[in-house]
C-alpha cells in the first residue's frame, strides 16, 4: 500500500487493513492515513474472531501483545502463514481494560514487518474502568510513537546492517500515529492520552516542555490503583502509559509540547556513533504538540482511586526463594537470554512451568559472566572479539577511553533491554541498581512506573528487576524476549513451556 507520511511523494508501506474497527472512529484511525493498523476496541468477556489474511510477499503471523490467550491464538512464530493463506483467531477477552498492541511475530522478520507499518493498538474496556467516567470519545487519544528514516525520495529506509542487529534500529524522524510533527487540537479540559512506544528500539523519556509533571493513571496492563505524578516517564519499546492531562485553565492558543528529555547510559556511547541516526537516544527532542483551540468549563475530575490490583501473596508464589533467572548476556556479538539464543527445540529445566502457578522471576545483566572467561570465550572467542574490533573501527577508541574506570569491556557494551513476557501481565516486586554509571542512572530512575501490571519491563544497565508472573489457564509454549525488535530477531528470545 501507499501512505502519505511526509509531504511530497507517498511511501510504500505494509499495513493491517480491513474492517476491524469497533465503535466510533477516533484520533488514531483518523490520522494514520494508510500507515498503522486500525484501532480495535473490545470489551472484557467478549468472544472475538479475527481473520488474518496474508497478502504480503512473505510469511507472517500476528501477535496480540499483552493479551492472555491460548498458545495457538498467541501468534507464535511457528504458526506463521504463507502468502495467500488465512489464519483464524478465536479467543475470549480475559484482560483488564487497557491499551494493548498488535504486531507481527514472524520468525526473524518481526522488526522489518513492524517497521514497514504492521502495528496497531487494541483498547479493552471493562466495568471497573467505565464506572470512573474518565475522559472518553474525542477526549481519549491513543498515540503510537515510532521513529523512522526516509530516503531522499520519501521512502521508508531501514539500515539493517550488523550494528542494527546489535543495537536496534534508530530512525531520525519521530512519527506519532504515523505522522511527523503531530499537532493535537484540544479543548481546555481533561484528556486521557494513551501512549504506546511502537518503535523497534528507541527509548523515550516523556516529559512536558514547560515542566508540568505527568499524571500517570495506567500502564501496560491497565489502571494503577491510584494516580501517580512524575517529572518524566521512561517508555521502552512496547511499553504503554496512560496519562490524565488537564488542559483546564490553559489559554486558547497556548501549546504544550511532549518531548523526550535528556538522559544517559541506556545505550553504549559508541553505538550512538555507529547507528547513523541524527536523533541520538537520550537527546532532547519534541514528540508532538497539543494546542488549546477552544475553551470549555466542563471537565471530568481525576478520581482519587482508580482500581484494585490483585497482587499475589507470598504463599501464592511457587518459588519465593528461588527465582527463575532471565540473564541478559552477550556473546559473539549477539544478545542472549541465559546464554542461549532462540531455539524451539531447546527448553531448559527452569523454562518448564506448571500451569496455574505464579512464579518469581529475576531479570538481570550477567556482568559476572561477561568477563572473557565466564563467557566461554577461549581462544576462539578472542578471535571473534578481534574481528569485532575490526568492525567497530573508530568507535573502539571511545570505548577504550571509557574502560579506565574499572568497568570491563562487556559492561561498557551494556544497554537497556525492554524484556517482554507473553501471556498474563506481571507485578514488578523489586528493582535494584547493582553497579554501573550512577550518574547516568540518575537521569532515568524516577521514570519507572512499577506499581501497575506490566507485560514489558525496561531493564536499564546495572539493574536487576524482580517480577511475579502468573501462568494461568493455558498450557503450551509462551515466549519471552527482548522487545528491542532487532534483538528479538537476532535470537534474544526464549520460550516457557507451561505444562
Ligand atoms: Cu510484542 Cu512477543 O511481542
Ligand atoms: Cu507479546
Ligand atoms: Cu535487547
Automatic annotation (TrEMBL):
Gene3D superfamilies in UniProt: Cupredoxins - blue copper proteins
Matching CDD domains: CuRO_1_McoP_like, CuRO_2_McoP_like
InterPro entries, sorted: Cu-oxidase-like_N (IPR011707), Cu-oxidase_C (IPR011706), Cu-oxidase_fam (IPR045087), Cu_oxidase_CS (IPR033138), Cu_oxidase_Cu_BS (IPR002355), Cupredoxin (IPR008972)
Presence of keyword Transmembrane helix: no
Short name of any one Pfam family annotated for the protein: Cu-oxidase_3
Top-rank taxon, per record: Bacteria
Annotated Plastocyanin-like domain residues: 28-128, 412-499
Keywords attached to this entry: Metal-binding, Oxidoreductase
Classification via PANTHER family: BILIRUBIN OXIDASE, CUPREDOXIN SUPERFAMILY PROTEIN
Record's protein name: Multicopper oxidase family protein
Amino acid at each position: 500500500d501507499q501512505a502519505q507520511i511526509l509531504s511530497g511523494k507517498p511511501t510504500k508501506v505494509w499495513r493491517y487493513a480491513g474492517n476491524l474497527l469497533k465503535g466510533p472512529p477516533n484520533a488514531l484511525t483518523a490520522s494514520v492515513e494508510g500507515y498503522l493498523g486500525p484501532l480495535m476496541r473490545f470489551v472484557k468477556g467478549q468472544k472475538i474472531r479475527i481473520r488474518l489474511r496474508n497478502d504480503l510477499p512473505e510469511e507472517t503471523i500476528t501477535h496480540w501483545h499483552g493479551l492472555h490467550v491460548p498458545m495457538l491464538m498467541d501468534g507464535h512464530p511457528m504458526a506463521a502463514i504463507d502468502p495467500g493463506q488465512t489464519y483464524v483467531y478465536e479467543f475470549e477477552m480475559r484482560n483488564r481494560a487497557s491499551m494493548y498492541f498488535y504486531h507481527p511475530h514472524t520468525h526473524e522478520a518481526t522488526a522489518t514487518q513492524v517497521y514497514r507499518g504492521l502495528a496497531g493498538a487494541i483498547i479493552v474496556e471493562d466495568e471497573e474502568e467505565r464506572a470512573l467516567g474518565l475522559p472518553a470519545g474525542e477526549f481519549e487519544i491513543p498515540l503510537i510513537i515510532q521513529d523512522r528514516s526516509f530516503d531522499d525520495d520519501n521512502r521508508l529506509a531501514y539500515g539493517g546492517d550488523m550494528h542494527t542487529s546489535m543495537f536496534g534500529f534508530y530512525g531520525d524522524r519521530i512519527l506519532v500515529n504515523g505522522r511527523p510533527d503531530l499537532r493535537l487540537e484540544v479543548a481546555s479540559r481533561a484528556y486521557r492520552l494513551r501512549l504506546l512506544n511502537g518503535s523497534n528500539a528507541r527509548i523515550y523519556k516523556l516529559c512536558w516542555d514547560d515542566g508540568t509533571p505527568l499524571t500517570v493513571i495506567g500502564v501496560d496492563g491497565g489502571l494503577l490503583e491510584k494516580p501517580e505524578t512524575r517529572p518524566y516517564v521512561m517508555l521502552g519499546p512496547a511499553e504503554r502509559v496512560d496519562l490524565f492531562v488537564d488542559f483546564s485553565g490553559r489559554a486558547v492558543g497556548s501549546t504544550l509540547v511532549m518531548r523526550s528529555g535528556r538522559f544517559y547510559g541506556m545505550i553504549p556511547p559508541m553505538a550512538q556513533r555507529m547507528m547513523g541516526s541524527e536523533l541520538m537516544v537520550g537527546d532532547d527532542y519534541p514528540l508532538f504538540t497539543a494546542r488549546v483551540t477552544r475553551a470549555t468549563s466542563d471537565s471530568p475530575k481525576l478520581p482519587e482511586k482508580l482500581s484494585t490490583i490483585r497482587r499475589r501473596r507470598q504463599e501464592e508464589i511457587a518459588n519465593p526463594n528461588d527465582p527463575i533467572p532471565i540473564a541478559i548476556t552477550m556473546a559473539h556479538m549477539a544478545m542472549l537470554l541465559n546464554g542461549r539464543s532462540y531455539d524451539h527445540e531447546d527448553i531448559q529445566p527452569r523454562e518448564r512451568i506448571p500451569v496455574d502457578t505464579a512464579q518469581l522471576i529475576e531479570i538481570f545483566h550477567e556482568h559476572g559472566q561477561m568477563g572473557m572467561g565466564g563467557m566461554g570465550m577461549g581462544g576462539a572467542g578472542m578471535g571473534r572479539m578481534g574481528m569485532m574490533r575490526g568492525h567497530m573501527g573508530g568507535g573502539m577508541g571511545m570505548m577504550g577511553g571509557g574502560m579506565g574506570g574499572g568497568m570491563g569491556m562487556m559492561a561498557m557494551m551494556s544497554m537497556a533491554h525492554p524484556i517482554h513476557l507473553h501471556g498474563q501481565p506481571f507485578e514488578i516486586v523489586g528493582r535494584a541498581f547493582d553497579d554501573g554509571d550512577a550518574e547516568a542512572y540518575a537521569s532515568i530512575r524516577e521514570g519507572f512506573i512499577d506499581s501497575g501490571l506490566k507485560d514489558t519491563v525496561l531493564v536499564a544497565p546495572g539493574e536487576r528487576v524482580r517480577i511475579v508472573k502468573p501462568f494461568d489457564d493455558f498450557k503450551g509454549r509462551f515466549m519471552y524476549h527482548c522487545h528491542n525488535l532487532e534483538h528479538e530477531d537476532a535470537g534474544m528470545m526464549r520460550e516457557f513451556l507451561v505444562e
